[in-house]
Amino acid sequence: MATGHDGPTGDWFGNSEQISRLPGKVFAATCLAATLFGIVMVAGLLVYVTKDAIRPLTANPGWFLVFFLTLVVPSTALLAYFGRRRDGEATVALTALGIPFFGLLLGSGVLMLFIDVIGIFEWLAFVAATIVAVGVILGHRRVRGRTSFLEELLVGVVALVGLGPVTYQFISTFPTLPQAWLIYLFTFGLGGAAIAGLLVARRRNDRRAGLTAFTALFVTVTAGVFIDPSTGITPPVWVILFTFAAIPTALYAEGVVRRRQGSLPVGLFFPFVVVAGMLVGAVLVDLLGFAGPQAWLDIQFLTSANSRFPEEAGIYPALIGSILMMVVVAISSFPIGVGAALYLEEYAPSSGPLSVVVKFIEINIANLAGVPSVVYGLLGLALFVNWLDFASGIVVVGGMTVGLLILPIIIISAQEAIRAVPGSLRQASYGMGATRWQTIRRVVLPEALPGILTGSILAFGRAIGETAPLLMIGAAASVFRAPNGFFDIFSAMPRQIYTWVGQPSQEFQYGVMAAGVVTLVTVMISMNAAAILIRNKYERRS
Amino acid sequence: MSQENNTPDFVGRSGIRSAREQSIKWLLFGCAALSVAVTTAIVATLLFDAIDFFLEVSPMAFFFGTTWSPTIDQAFGVVPLVAGTLFVTVLSACIAIPVGVASATYLSEYASRKTRSIIKPALEILAGIPTVVYGYFALVYLTPALEWLGLPLSTFNALSASIMIGIMIIPMVSSLSEDAMSAVPDSLRQAGYGMGATKLEVSTGVVIPAAASGIFSSFILALSRAIGETMIVVVAAGMRPRLVPSPFESLEVMTAAMVQLVTTDIAGGSTAYRAMFAIGITLFAITFAMNLASTFVASRYREEYQ
């Protein structure tokens, strides 16, 4: 038949009858290579910088062998076994390891705040003032019945502002304060156990179970206070880390056990295998006398201030500065961002004069997300320092500037999360007679919360690495003690790293700076990982 | 007995309820309107000092002057800084645009669901790495590596900074372009296959042209990000204004000039201090215009297919 070599049909797809698969394969491979290009390059650089920060070659090979045998082999074998069972046990195992890990990270942050920044006295006064304010609101509600939201807000603010200083004064007249550990126990420990108890009671629909959980947790946290402080676990360390790491883990374990009625969830034992591997490894290494790597990134680096000498330089004050700044960033951007997203998605009219304003606001937000961070820095400098007369380079100014920077990102991601809530849920709620606000608070917000949290954590991860705005508002190049309040001058981790860029010596360039970069990137990747985990968990459910 | 008591009160305290609803609505509106206040504040604060600057230095001397030496010679010509910015932006675009589009094509047309679920978070992390870290990589690892390859680089140079900026904005190009490609209706692809086209021909001949406006808008956004990028250039490209930049030498871009002005000790009310705001408002105007253009282009493609 016609071979098609000289056919008059001209150009059309497949006119050569034999189509080579090669161009397609080459194209697909090129595209894949392009996708991996950036990822591989940055991953390689991260490996390199980690190598410089840890210096694994300085360690005794025996050291690696011991940890390989006690930690890597058992845990990977166990994970592989769980993975082969294909019943979700691997997920349980990894989550059971991940929750205490993130909890410890968060708990250490809070702990640092309480050791260095917030005095026990201020904390007690703050808790007392909050309790008084809540009491006033409840009392007000009882007297006046259910009133408008604004009225309650007003009463709350008046109670907090009016009674806060009075409470502070009142507490300062006490001849003796209770011991610090008692205060931590009854604020963090009691509060955490109470919240856990309430959650358990609600999940199981069983008050007694909640009470049991509460009692068990509270007794454990109280018992831990009596651990010998010479082990390093002092009562504040114990109470705060328990509250942030152990209580969420216990809640997760409770959930798994409840869902698996009957069969034992072995995955929950995975973290014990890991921790035991670490402990056994540490003991063995100590007994056999194998030296570990002489890392730049060590406890000394994390706990000391900057120095002219690379061996003594550390990042501690900048770490505290970053944590404090993130507190301000979260407070200043999260509520406003979610509020704005709620208005734009739930209230904004689609016609009428206000709709023009709304359209304008939406375009404006999209554009704000693209404004360079250095311009936000200038805004912070001009607005907060020059006009509002704050001191330059203090925590509040840095936090609010970076907060403004991530506000549009939070609004946009929260809008996406709220938009993804199906309209049928809202209609059902309206059908039950709920008002718009009741629908939002009871239906829309709980449903959209995972999405909102994911977007916000990603935004906070970006905020913690922002450098240019901090340069513009005059954050300190190096501070030698941690800031002791929100109105103190501070430095942050990225700012400290930029200071080290100016140090020409090899030890700084490839040692101290590498350690700083690894610290910063670890914090940022942990936050991203937490966000991605939250998203994956809730995506699968729906 | 009065009549009213017999009618059940279904509405409840409707007055209080609606007052509460209204107050919440306006509170949330306030949150949304704050973004406009931020924009206004940016423009106002920048303009305030920039106008003072332009009273001292004529706009002609600023926008067309070819020497930037604010502290020593009191010369405020912004042209070398703009030249440096454009140079770095074009170089980084040479990396980010081809790589980003190829990666978007892979993710949208070739990747399986599972591959995508691994690669997309990795790209997200790439986008989230602090820029000062990218700058550190460029200065401490990339520059020596390129020197080892035989390029005559000085310690601070435009090339390694541009490569790093290019890598930083790849995720932006690829994720926005992928959104645009995924929005192309499947019927177009099916039609292509029906005509006997291969997957390669469908990808390059049907999907990419159909998503062109979305892809183009991602280019604009990414370039605007490259223009406003600060820390990478500050750390790795140096602070030496040049009218004719070279990839192997140091140069100074607009953002770096602002950082240099604020970190050297200049007096609060001096002309050099105000020059910072003049650069700031120029930068703001450029990026804002680019973002608006990107929104405009992107909204056109949305009209075509939805």
UniProtKB/TrEMBL annotation, chain A:
Keywords: Cell membrane, Membrane, Transmembrane, Transmembrane helix, Transport. One of its GO terms (biological process) is phosphate ion transmembrane transport. It comes from the Archaea. It is a multi-pass membrane protein. It is found in: Cell membrane. The chain crosses the membrane at residues 26-50, 62-82, 94-114, 120-140, 152-171, 183-201, 208-227, 233-252, 264-285, 315-344, 365-384, 390-412, 510-534. Residues 319-531 form the ABC transmembrane type-1 domain. GO terms for molecular function: phosphate transmembrane transporter activity. CDD domains: TM_PBP2. GO terms for cellular component: plasma membrane. Its main location: membrane. Belongs to the binding-protein-dependent transport system permease family. CysTW subfamily. This is Phosphate transport system permease protein PstA. It comes from Haloprofundus marisrubri. The lineage of its organism: Archaea, Methanobacteriati, Methanobacteriota, Stenosarchaea group, Halobacteria.
UniProtKB/TrEMBL annotation, chain B:
The keyword Membrane applies. It holds the Pfam family BPD_transp_1. The chain crosses the membrane at residues 26-55, 75-101, 122-142, 148-170, 275-298. One of its GO terms (cellular component) is plasma membrane. One of its GO terms (biological process) is phosphate ion transport. Gene3D superfamilies: MetI-like. Residues 82-294 form the ABC transmembrane type-1 domain. InterPro entries: MetI-like, MetI-like_sf, Phosphate_PstC. It comes from the Archaea. Keywords: Cell membrane, Membrane, Phosphate transport, Transmembrane, Transmembrane helix, Transport. One of its GO terms (molecular function) is phosphate transmembrane transporter activity. It is a multi-pass membrane protein. CDD domains: TM_PBP2. The keyword Transcription regulation does not apply. It is found in: Cell membrane; Membrane. Belongs to the binding-protein-dependent transport system permease family. CysTW subfamily. Part of the binding-protein-dependent transport system for phosphate; probably responsible for the translocation of the substrate across the membrane. This is Phosphate transport system permease protein. The lineage of its organism: Archaea, Methanobacteriati, Methanobacteriota, Stenosarchaea group, Halobacteria.
